[in-house]
Amino acid sequence: MIDMHVHILPGVDDGAKDVQMTREMAMRAADAGITFIVATPHVYRAQDQQRNRHGLRIARSIAHEAGLGLNLGCEFNYRALLEAGTRELDAFCLSGTRCILLEFSCSELLPRWDALVSEMMDNGYLPIIAHPERYRYLQRDFGIAQEMRDLGCELQVDACGLMAPLMSDERRTARRLLREGMADYVASDAHRPGDYDDYEKAYRTFRGEWPRDNRLTQALLTQRKERANDGR
């Protein structure tokens, strides 16, 4: 099972604060049934990704000890995208694919967001919208989620959103996205080991609805097959 949104690199953002927490997160992820992690540290400025690469070697070694594969991606904030532009975004893609985990503002819908993601796709990149259940404008107008999918975006729901407090807008929106087949991914968005408690609870509760057919998973499987063939 792939967890494609995890803040596991030590000391780079608001996730794992040190190597010990990275180790605890990796062990907890393995206990939860994860076999492969895409590390997705926050990127608020384009240059942040260079900083993130420094923690990759350490985290990958720790993940390997826990029986996990680990590659680098990022949670690419819309402000960094506006700074970098929509061309030459390979450094921000998930695990060597053409998929980018894109984070919008939670409070206000970015003007001409649709033109921005369309331009990304015109340049060969697939935007995966991070935790849309948190976006207050989408909570009020669920049609925005459909617009995102109609444009060709994929949507990633957080497990903690599915298990959010009863009657909360976040929980209601997350569960509707999953129920209506609009969630292409459920990820942990783990920042600490205990976040995998919500992941396990969500998987037990929604196992029959858990999304598996998405372009990132297909791309990663293709990568593995190519590497296996190269090793023959």
Overview features:
alpha/beta; 16% strand; 3-stranded parallel sheet; 232 residues; globular; 6-stranded parallel sheet; 44% helix
How would you describe the overall organization of this protein?
With 232 residues, the protein is α/β, with parallel strands linked by helices. The protein is 44% helix and 16% strand. It contains eleven helices and nine strands. The protein has helices at residues 19-31, 48-53, 56-65, 78-84, 113-122, 136-140, 143-151, 159-162, 169-179, 195-206, 215-230; strands at residues 2-6, 36-39, 42-43, 69-72, 75-77, 99-103, 126-130, 154-158, 185-187. A six-stranded parallel β-sheet has the order 3-5-6-7-8-9. The chain has a three-stranded parallel β-sheet with strand order 1-2-4, with helices on one face. Helix 1 (19-31) crosses helix 3 (56-65). The chain starts with a strand and ends with a helix. The relative contact order is 0.14. The mean pLDDT is 95.
Q: Approximately how much beta-strand content do the residues carry?
A: 15-25%
Please estimate the helix content: 40-55%
Low-confidence stretches: none
**Helix-strand makeup class:** alpha/beta
Task: Count the beta strands.
Answer: 9
- Average pLDDT number: 95
Oligomer: single chain
Order of H and E elements: EHEEHHEEHEHEHHEHHEHH
Q: What topology, given as strand order, has the largest sheet?
A: 3-5-6-7-8-9
Q: What's the tally of helices? A: 11
Rg, Cα atoms, Å: 17 Å
Major beta sheet summary: 6 strands, parallel
Give the overall form: globular
- Terminal CA distance: 25 Å
